[in-house]
Amino acid sequence: MKQKPSIAFIAASWVALFAGMLGYIIGLWNATMQLNEKGYYFTILMYALFSAVSVQKCVRDRLEGVPVTDIYYGLSWVSMLLSILLLIIGLWNATLASSEKGFYAFAFLLAIFGAIAVQKNTRDSQAAAKDTVRSNE
């Protein structure tokens, strides 16, 4: 029987996701960079969050024996790595202070971690609920 994640871990995962996302977005909102630069960094964050959830789902599906095509699995990993690479390239070439670059990098990574953890918790909670329904039948 699968165990549902603890309320503390679920809460910590959501806090990590929102703290990373909100910190990153608030930093962009207050930044003195041009609007197209803000759009670039915002798009990378959204792309990374989607990619992280997709990678987590593909990896979990494969572990549980759910069919995942090799092309989707590969594209998910390429997307995740590409989003990180795009952030690194953007920050490397940005005319920001080192502290700002570090802020964006860590907010980005916190948001990705939060997205993966929230996806995992959601999946674990659903699996535990299905097991509970099966055992009650």
From TrEMBL:
Signal peptide interval: none
Domain YiaAB two helix: 9-61, 72-124
InterPro entries in the record: YiaA-like (IPR038972), YiaAB (IPR008024)
TM spans (from-to): 7-27, 39-59, 71-95, 101-118
Family annotation (Pfam families): YiaAB
Keywords: Membrane, Transmembrane, Transmembrane helix
Record protein name field: YiaAB two helix domain-containing protein
